[in-house]
Design a protein that fits this description.
The protein is an alpha/beta fold. It has one domain (7-270): L-arginine/glycine Amidinotransferase, Chain A, CATH 3.75.10.10. The protein is built from 7 helices and 15 strands. The protein has a 3-stranded mixed sheet with strand order 2-1-15, with helices on one face. A 3-stranded mixed sheet has the order 3-4-5, covered by helices on one side. The mean pLDDT is 95.
Length: 275
């Protein structure tokens, strides 16, 4: 998409709570010490690079009662037509209400995932009008069915995919562009993704958490803490004819200790009326 036709895009981020350092939820990693200054530095750099990508960034206050509340992505799925408040894991179940209280409905009608459905935004990858949803410990089939019922009337398709040893679908699979997925093939069903019509770019085995990148229209942010994957992504980006100045990077090391990636830290959405 040429720069002159980019949509006006926004990002909502939340300051990390001090409680994140000791009480973040972990599913697949052992707990190790997280450096408070490193977390603050990484979050500030992340906000800066989002602004450099052309996004209007809103920073919400920390919520000490919710250690994982910095991971804004999980609280909602923002479509052009509707704001879908998710139903996260029990310890985070109140976070979508905090989003609504702090940021409002983002100019959209509000829909909600309700029990017994569970859904977290980290399991929902949007590629055009396709919503690709991972079935994980955080998202169940009922949650996917409810998302389908909400989104299908607006012209979206909803597809579910099996996920292995990965906290979220987007930990193991994100889109470099609308035809190419960056994946960890050990954690997702690569055959199913190919059958869905995508080319795949696999992360190196020694960078298993590197498949999470953040795409905003024709701009992409990659994790510089995974240098081999970053180099592969850069090469693929150039080979597919994308503008070099639309590729950005920032390192996430301390946040990685909390099983977090680039998409986790923000809720990104576009003004559907803008071009």
């Amino acid at each position: 998409m040429p720069e002159s036709t980019r949509r006006l895009c926004y990002a909502i981020v939340r300051q990390p709570a001090r409680s994140l350092l000791d009480a973040c939820e972990l599913t697949h990693l052992d707990r190790v010490a997280i450096d408070a200054e490193g977390i603050a530095r990484e979050h500030a750099a992340y906000r800066d690079v989002l602004a450099a990508m052309g996004l209007s960034v809103t920073v919400l206050p920390a919520i000490e009662a919710h250690p994982d509340s910095v991971f804004m992505e999980d609280t909602a799925v923002v479509l052009d037509e509707v704001l879908v408040l998710t139903r996260p894991t029990r310890s985070r179940e109140a976070e979508p209400a905090h989003l609504l209280a702090d940021a409002g409905a983002l100019g959209r009608p509000v829909a909600r995932i309700t029990a017994p459905g569970t859904l977290e935004g980290g399991d929902v990858l949007r590629v055009g009008r396709r919503l690709m949803v991972g079935l994980t410990t955080r998202t169940n089939a009922e949650g996917v069915a409810q998302l389908h019922a909400i989104a299908e009337p607006f012209g979206y398709t909803v597809e579910s995919f099996a996920v292995g040893r990965s906290l979220h679908f987007k930990t193991a699979c994100t889109a470099l562009d609308e035809g190419l997925l960056l994946v960890n093939p050990e954690w997702v069903d690569a055959q199913a993704l190919r059958a869905a019509g995508f080319e795949l770019l696999a992360v190196p085995g020694d960078e298993p958490f590197a498949a999470n990148l953040l795409r905003v229209d024709d701009r992409v942010l990659i994790n510089a803490a995974a240098p081999r994957t970053a180099a592969l992504a850069r090469d693929a980006w150039r080979a597919r004819g994308h503008a070099p100045d639309a590729l950005f990077d920032t390192p996430l090391v301390e946040f990685g200790k909390a099983e977090a990636g680039l998409t986790c830290l923000s809720l990104v959405y576009a003004d559907p009326a803008s071009t």
